Amino acid sequence: MAIGLTPARSIAAMQAFRSGGVQRRMIKVPRVRPLMPAVLSVISGVVALVSGATLAGCGTSRSDDSGSTATTSSLAASVPAPRRTIRLQLAGTGTVPAAVQLPGLARTTDRRVLAVGGLDAADTSTADVISVLPAPASRIGQLAQPAHDIGVTSIGRTVYAFGGGTAAGPIATITAVDRQGHTRVAGRLPVAMSDTTAVTLGGTAYVVGGYTTTTPLRSVLSFRPGHGVHVAAELPHPVRYAASAAIGSRIYVAGGTTGTQARREIVEVDTATHRVRVVGRLPAPLAHAAGVALGGTFYVLGGRGDALNGQQARIWGFDPVTRELRRAGRLPVALSDLAAVADGDHVVAVGGRDRQGRVHAERWTFRPR
Question: What is the pTM of this model?
Answer without folding.
Answer: 0.80
